[in-house]
Specification:
Length: 255
Amino acid sequence: MFFPKELLDNIVYYKVITILTGAGISAESGISTFRDKGGLWDKYRPEDLACQSAFDADPLLVWSWYQYRRDTIARARPNPGHLALVKWEALARDFTLITQNVDGLHRAAGCRRIVELHGNIRINRCQVCGQESNMEETPFDGQVPICSCGGMFRPGVVWFGAMLPENALRVAFQAAEHCDLFITVGTSAVVYPAAALPEVALSRGIPVIEINPEMTPFSKSATHYIQGPAGTVLPELVAVYEKAHGLSSPTDPNS
């Protein structure tokens, strides 16, 4: 794997790492689309179901679609890209992972400091009192799950037209404002407000690395664009970081 010389020369100085991940890293685990070609859900657009108005009109339909999504995600496993980020978290002095994905694969891999900008599909949230529970505690069994307060549970994700969680945004921007290396993985970083995060780092003179199989509208703005899938690039980049810092992660059997 070829890495820019400037990056290799300076990687020893990077100790506060912020990562932004998007759909690309999940695609490598088989989560590339939620459209079932030729199936029941092919006639629906995601934006027509993942919204408050759809839930208000037909909560059972929306829940059925989300159960289909959950079943798809349940078959997926963290890939080498996810696992490399777990190792990087253990190596870095300070590490924040910001994700636009709702599949929970970063948590399944073992990452601890995660900012889920769009929520988590494995969580249910009551529309009335805001109580949260995991999908095992309040499963969808063909009927809309009901909270103890009497309100309907809905999937704990951010729907189209809704604001991102204020606290998640605050933590994400703080991470962009205080890191000394920012990396985007599997996202074009052109949809705001998430797209502003690498811009914040760039405005501070902080290097921003983009990792993607194909160039995006952001690629020319990035300090370094590294072409390739996350599952290939990240393990090698983390190995370079580990060697430069003379470190080994706590989970390393040779440590």
